[in-house]
Amino acid sequence: MTIWFASGNAHKKAELASILADSGCGYELVIPADAGLEFDPEETEETFHGNAILKARALRRLLLEARPPLFRDGDPIVADDSGICVDALDGRPGVYSARYSGPPGSPVSGKPGAGERNAMLLGELGDAANRTARFVCAMVLLFGHDTFFVAQETLEGEIVKGPGFATGAGGFGYDPIFWIPGLGRTAAELSGVEKNAVSHRGKAGRLIARMLERRTAD
């Protein structure tokens, strides 16, 4: 059976595929682009789990309408919404992490890239003493419009003191500026195996894998 992942992010697909494989899930993970489908729903909810449910339902509607060859009725759909929440910024950027444009009035045009978003976040945080933050991931396993499971997990850490402290070539997004005190490294310095073991997406993905096992065993 195929698991459909409501995302166009190849990095996220690779991470989730690895997480599910490590959990013993023998399903094939595919994204809409694998079936030649365009998928970019507007994320209008104010919570991570709200956006995850929105994306899962949007993909289900698309699959039922398009009926691509890879799709079979009953295929489970997984969707996630994730971001970084910084305590000194009252939880920002939160659900707006992927389209973060800094504090109100920031002169940013278009959709900022990862490096630009990181610079804006560090600039807004400035020299604040409190740098605690967390990555949050809400993941949904959907079987029908109103039949789904939700898991939400976090990875606790701190924002580095400035651009000169951003390190690591791995990961993506905010990983180079997210310091994990217990490991003494940024998220971008972790190997894929190390990151999946502790990350917000790894924890949520393993819960989703267990839910899938129980559901299919019933």
Structure description:
By secondary structure, this protein is α/β, with parallel strands linked by helices. It starts with a strand and ends with a helix. It has a single domain (2-217), classed as Maf protein (Alpha-Beta Complex), CATH 3.90.950.10. Helices cover 32% and strands 22% of the residues. Helix 1 (10-22) crosses helix 5 and helix 4 crosses helix 5. The relative contact order is 0.16. The mean pLDDT is 90.
What is the structure about, briefly put?
This protein is of the alpha/beta class. Helix content is 32%, strand content 22%.
CATH topology-level fold name: Maf protein
Looking at the chains present, what oligomeric state does this protein adopt? single chain
**Total of helices:** 5
N-to-C span: 16 Å
Helix content: 25-40%
- Provide the structure class: alpha/beta
Count of the separate structural domains = 1
Residues in β-strands, percent: 15-25%
Order of helices and strands: EHEHEHEEEEHH
Number of strands: 7
As a whole number of angstroms, the C-alpha radius of gyration is: 18 Å
CATH architecture heading: Alpha-Beta Complex
Q: Main beta sheet: strand number and arrangement?
A: 7 strands, mixed
Give the CATH level 1 class: Alpha Beta
